[in-house]
Amino acid sequence: MGALLLSACGGGGDRPSAEAKDGPALSSCAASDTTAVMVAVREYISTASPTPQRYLSAAGTDSAVPEDGFKVLQDKGPTYFYGGDSVAQRKIREKLASVGPYASLLVLFKGKSEAADGNSVTITLGGQYIGGEHEGKRAAAKTFGVACDSTHWKIATTTVDSTTVDSAR
Predict the structure, then answer these.
(1) For burial by CB atoms within 10 Å, which of 93, 101, 159, 160 has the most?
(2) What single-letter DSSP state applies at residue 31?
(3) In angstroms, rounded to a whole number, what is the distance separating the alpha carbons of residues 24 and 151?
(4) 120, 10 in Cβ contact below 8 A?
(5) What's the number of CA atoms in the CB half-sphere (13 Å) around residue 38?
(6) Which residues of 63-72 are buried (b: 16+ CB within 10 A; e: fewer)?
(7) pLDDT band at 17; cut points 50, 70, 90
């Protein structure tokens, strides 16, 4: 397991998008579909400041980014599992330090709630920079309202929790 925690996860590869699936257009926006999480994670990391160059997910915890969101992280850059125990965390920090001083963002999944009609989902994400010059800096927690426009998920609203913004910025 330790070797798994130390290795970067491979990039995403070609996968059909939710829009390319066969069936009625609304099937791409089913509430059980995690594509809404993908949209929220993509928006979260693309608006993070400082711009992350590597990504981490809290392995084995309820804060771990769901699988589809994790694929977004992999598509954007080197992605690592950040273990819950101090030994695993130390090892991944050593690995990050050995490959360079790049901004590394631990993306934290804070919850998801779905509307009864299945056409909107609220997703909350947070983050913290691990290692390097941004060590310990928190990324603002953001709540994304993701809505189905009958063919695909789109960000409808974004709310920033100002209490989580690092005052040093």
Answers:
(1) 93
(2) T
(3) 9
(4) no
(5) 19
(6) bbbeebbbbb
(7) very low
Per-residue model confidence as pLDDT tens digits over 124-165: 999 999 998 999 999 999 999 999 887 789 999 999 987 765
Sole residue written with tokens 């829009």: 19
Strand 54-58 versus strand 138-148 pairing type: unpaired
Closest CA to 103 of 141, 128, 134: 134
Query: By the 8 A CB rule, do 105 and 57 touch?
Result: no
Structure tokens of 168? 């040093």
CA 108/CA 110 separation, integer angstroms: 6
| pTM reported for the whole predicted model | 0.78
Please report, for the chain, how many H helices and E strands are present, in that order: 4, 6
Looking up tokens 């980014």 gives 65
Q: Which residues pair with residue 56 across a beta bridge? A: 80, 106
